[in-house]
Amino acid sequence: MPDLNEAQIRSFQQGRGLNVTGVIDAVTARALEEAKWKLGDRSLSVQEYPLMRGDDVAALQSRLTEMGFDCGRVDGIYGVRSAAAVKEFQQSVGITVDGKCGPATIIALLRLTRIVSGGAPSLLRESATQRNRGPALANKVIVLNPTGDDSLIYDVALRTEGRLLALGASVFLTRGAANNPSESERIAFTNQSQADLMISLDCDDYKNERAHGAATYFYGSDSHGIHSIVGERFASLVQREICARTDLTNCRTHAMAWDLLRLTKAPAVQIDVGYHSNSGDMERLSRADFRDVVAEALVIAIQRLYLAAEDDAKTGTLRIADLRKAGLRR
Question: How confident is the model at residue 328 (pLDDT cuts 50, 70, 90)?
Fold first, then answer.
């Protein structure tokens, strides 16, 4: 483990899209381990759990993606999909096809220049997939993740679920009223559900009780040079809808590399609906009418994500009744 002072740890955490605490916790320790690997330092292959992780894997995924080979999300984890993309690349350049990124594969990668223009193919694929699903919610699978065991956040999820079901969407909650699965269990559940979108609901906490407002987070990593284009767009839509319909302070959208966002295959966002540590935010959240407004904002933002630009409406103006009139339900 490198000998880092608090300022260096904070700088590293900020650069990696992690929670900035100044303390080397388990997540930061893993990120430090991943950061030490550069492409070419070692051979990469699919292993038994735990899978190989590192910045070298992310660099490989980015390079293959730029050349049109589908690695899926650039997450720095060498899994089956990454190995399949390596095999396709190896076949295309006439070297041994084994799914392992060793010296011959790296040399071939370094010899080739970028041949794709107009945006990273993974981002184009993600955006095209979202467009091709059409505007109706009746064929969408939405996973709602009320984090922790907060009953008010769980109630927001239930109110959102009811509205989505009425519009014909398939909705799954990652927990019930009395259970609290681990984060890894919630990620696995979401991936197994083959979700179109995952929405995590939470309340923030801060040592200064004056901190207040709503913020939304999507997957993005400057160190890996990637972000979720659909996740970012939805984060912007839902943040604007919530702030237009409530008096919560706009704490903006932010790219983060939390495991919940990074390892969930579908576009994923986390929405912090205020602060537990702020009495004003908690007073708002304790009101049923406020939770109703937040739930409606979430549903409208989901619908706006799937509407074509010419069919969209101004922030804060679209209503669920409008969706029914437009036939955007089963």
Answer: very low
Instruction: Inform me whether the pLDDT recorded for 117 exceeds 50.
Output: no
Amino acid at 15: G
- Cross-strand bridge partners of residue 273: 214
What is the structure's pLDDT at 130? 55
Element (H, E) at 16: helix 6-16
Reported as a single tens digit per residue, the pLDDT across 58-110 is 999 988 988 888 888 888 999 999 999 999 999 998 999 999 999 999 988 88
Neighbouring residues of 113: CB distance < 8 A, sequence distance ≥ 6: none
Instruction: Tell me the residue length of the chain.
Output: 330
Chain center to CA of 227: 9
Structure tokens at 45: 């292959």
Q: In which domain, by residue range, is 21 found? A: 1-36
Q: Is residue 330 part of a domain?
A: no
Interatomic CA distance for residues 259 and 231, integer angstroms: 14
- 269 DSSP β-pair partners: 199, 218
pLDDT of residue 310: 40
pLDDT over 90 (residue 171): yes
CATH of the domain at 206: 3.40.630.40
**141 in a structural domain:** yes
Looking at the structure, tell me whether residues 54 and 168 fall in a common domain.
no
For residues 8 and 45, state if they share a domain.
Answer: no
Query: Is residue 122, in this structure, part of any structural domain at all?
Result: no
Report whether 262 contacts 72 (CB < 8 A): no
Q: Is position 307 within any domain?
A: yes
Q: Find the Cα–Cα–Cα–Cα dihedral 160, 162, 166, 172, rounded to 10°.
A: 80
State the amino acid at position 251 in one-letter form: C
Is the separation of the CB atoms in 219 and 249 below 8 Å? Answer: no
